[in-house]
Amino acid sequence: KQSKTSQIRTPIVCVLGHVDHGKTSLLDTIRGSSVVDTEAGAITQHIGATIVPIEAIARGNSSLAKMQFNIPGLLFIDTPGHHAFTTLRARGGSLADLAIVVVDINEGFKPQTIEALQILRNYKTPFVIAANKVDRIHGWRVHENESFATTFAKQNERVQGMLETKVYELVGKLSDLGFNSERFDRVRDFARNVGIVPTSALTGEGISDVLMMLIGLAQRYMTDNLALSVEGPGAGTVLEVKEERGLGTTLDVILYDGTLSVGDEIVVAGHNQILTTKVRSLLKPRPMSEILIEDKFERVKSVAAATGIKVAAPKLEGVIAGTPLRVVRGENRDEVIEKVMSEIEDIQVTIADEGIIIKADTIGALEALSKELDAQGIGVLKAEVGPVTRHDVIEAGTIKNPLYSAIIAFNTPMLPDAVDTLAESPQVSAFESGVIYQLIDDYVEWRDEKKR
Ligand code: GTP
Ligand code: MG
């Protein structure tokens, strides 16, 4: 059992990377390799998250078993896609304390990998790289669930050489992007160098090394951040807004601070408005085997940070993913409303006198896009969550400087009447993509073409 004095919050870990490079498999392996459901220290499934307690991580791992820990475990966010990361915003930064960037060692970096790295740099989030699918290297001999050092030592020279070459290709690419990196077992200073861990999510090789790196990063660099309370009024971030049969509109929330109980008054945010409501029920997913049972959820009375939980309450229809949730308890309601408002205003979208129009599907996505535009000196005149409307196109058409008559839509569609209006507005261009740097490249190319 953890002693009271040493108790700090569970670090939140987000998994990012290109489609099919193995994010979900990696989490499955982390879960599967250490699931023991009878005793304390069992891994628990929560809404949008999995908690892996430190005992479960250390079990059966001799190097970990020897280490001293002051974190209770790791909370992995399993929402698919890199997009989860940008939704997980909180307090003007990212809710994720740490990240794993998964890259297929045989394919190397892809657009979404690069985007993930840019986002992590902007948010200053420590991360490790899982250079995944090593078992696909020609001639690789599998040693299930072994550490990297053990399995690497048992490979022949040609395979070892091939792995080294592939790791150095990643090091080179990372250097182009401004990161110093090394194979993790050669890194001396983790504050300066990113560690690359060769892994196989399929065979479990190198997975214990990834966990050890994450724990090391959390213990060394994050203790202050993590010393948030596991008591007091709850604070969280809305991960998703979902319709559930029999429950109405519900919020999937990652609670990062304090407690949340049935009957609590909560403050949440919708489009241009703040809502207060009372928690009707708190719901946890039932174990996988019971998923077909009519009642998918188990009701609980109260939860403490950090965890994922589904919240049912009246009036949740207009709530936006990525916005904060706070409990009113102790301080008065107006103060809490004030806090939520300031957190939303805090969303770091710098609005310039001159610039383009940007749209995105969530607040976090808008923020991530805006940060990258800012870094490249591209002004933003208007930034909004939602699809591209006819009004946006008309507005872009009235922008005086023709180089800014553009709309960037990140992960959000164009409404049909916007498409029609765009067809009648030759001076306006709209760029759509699910990858930020693709959007920026396209815009810059269009702009530079116009300049000539
Ligand atoms: P998206 O959620 O679609 O972005 O993909 P993902 O990154 O979650 O990838 P996922 O875990 O679904 O893996 C994609 C495919 O790669 C699956 O068929 C996996 O079985 C396979 N795969 C993942 N990791 C490994 C690995 O280490 N080795 C091998 N050989 N296959 C792997
Ligand atoms: Mg996946």
Automatic annotation (TrEMBL):
Transmembrane segments: none
Superkingdom of this protein's organism: Archaea
Protein name, UniProt field: Probable translation initiation factor IF-2
UniProt domain Tr-type G: residue ranges: 8-222
UniProt: GTP binding residues: 17-24, 78-82, 132-135
Keywords of this entry: GTP-binding, Initiation factor, Nucleotide-binding, Protein biosynthesis
First-to-last residue of the parent protein present: 3 to 454 of 594
Family: Belongs to the TRAFAC class translation factor GTPase superfamily. Classic translation factor GTPase family. IF-2 subfamily.
A molecular-function term among this protein's GO annotations: translation initiation factor activity
Keyword Cell inner membrane: no
Function text: Function in general translation initiation by promoting the binding of the formylmethionine-tRNA to ribosomes. Seems to function along with eIF-2.
